[in-house]
Structure formats: structure tokens, C-alpha cells
Amino acid sequence: MTSFEEAGTEETVTCLHLNFYHPGQHEKMMFRCLNFCKREQVRADDVAKFGRDSSICRYSLVEARVSRIQFSLQFYRKLHTSECGFEIKNLSKKTKLTVNQTELGYLNKIDLPWKCIISFGDYQILTEIEEGEAVDYFETHLHLAEAPILQEKCLPCLLSLQPIPESGVSPSFFLSQGKSPTEIDENDL
């Protein structure tokens, strides 16, 4: 046996991708303390806090309008499954937090959907969970979005998250044309 054959199986890691946007991000530089484009490991028992106070928050947003602790993300394992998830909790007494269309007041919490938009004030954060097997830690991967994530014209398509068939044509296209979709055998194409 070679050392390659004897090596343990590498487990995949759950990764939380976060895309940040603020309309004044270039002038105000509120994201200057965030480490973009590099995956960062977070212990499973740590609470990932976001806010203005860098002594408390792992992810610091440098702006006076942001609460000392704006919100937290807690990694957990779902009961009776091997599936993991994240819980988001609003820790701001002054600002409501919106996760997709669900508004969270102070100390309200919900499960973070696998893909969603978190917003508060002018901040928009598109999050997406990449599932993994590791339970001792997870990773975060931060990105800076150049364009607004939440726009009136694309809000419904982001929030509904309806699957698009392999043909690449959305059922909503047919409905807007006054037609109903027809099933076609792939051999007929």
C-alpha cells in the first residue's frame, strides 16, 4: 500500500459565501476591515458576529450607522440528520434586519436559507451556503459586489428561487407570453 492509499479521506467543509454591497462603499470604505476573496476558517462553536465594534465582532463594518453588534450567525447541526445549517439573529436594538422578505426585530432569529439576501439600512449581503461534511468548523468567503444586489426589477426572481429547467427557459416566460409550457421528449429536439 502506498501512503496515498493509507491517507484518510478528506472531508468537505461547509462554506458561507457572503457578497457585500453598500451604495457608498467606495467613498466611505466601510468594508476596509473585511478580508475579501480569501476563505477563513471559523470554529463550529464560535458565533460569527457582524457589527461596528471590532473588539467583539469578527466581521467589522466601519460606519457610525452600524450597531456595535448588528447580527450574528451561528453554525449548527440539524437534529437527527448529518445536515448543518446557520441561524441568523438580529442583535441591533435600533435597526431591523431583513432576510429575504422576513423582518427580524431585536433578538429575533431564523434559519438562514441556503441562498438569501440579508439587508439592513443601505447594506445588502447576498449569502449562499455551500454544504460540507466537517462539523468542527466552517469557512466564510467574503466578496465585494460592485452593483446593488437588491433591485426592484430582480427582487422577485432572487426571492422566489424557482428552478430553471434544463432548456434554460423559465416557466414564467411562457406565462408572460400567454402560453403554457409543453413537455418535450429530449429525443424530439
From TrEMBL:
<dbReference type="InterPro" id="IPR000253">
    <property type="entry name" value="FHA_dom"/>
</dbReference>
<protein>
    <recommendedName>
        <fullName>TRAF-interacting protein with FHA domain-containing protein A</fullName>
    </recommendedName>
</protein>
<dbReference type="InterPro" id="IPR033621">
    <property type="entry name" value="TIFA"/>
</dbReference>
<dbReference type="GO" id="GO:0005737">
    <property type="term" value="C:cytoplasm"/>
</dbReference>
<dbReference type="InterPro" id="IPR008984">
    <property type="entry name" value="SMAD_FHA_dom_sf"/>
</dbReference>
<keyword id="KW-0391">Immunity</keyword>
<feature type="domain" description="FHA">
    <location>
        <begin position="49"/>
        <end position="121"/>
    </location>
</feature>
<comment type="similarity">
    <text>Belongs to the TIFA family.</text>
</comment>
<keyword id="KW-0399">Innate immunity</keyword>
<dbReference type="GO" id="GO:0045087">
    <property type="term" value="P:innate immune response"/>
</dbReference>
<dbReference type="Pfam" id="PF00498">
    <property type="entry name" value="FHA"/>
</dbReference>
<dbReference type="GO" id="GO:0043123">
    <property type="term" value="P:positive regulation of canonical NF-kappaB signal transduction"/>
</dbReference>
<keyword id="KW-0963">Cytoplasm</keyword>
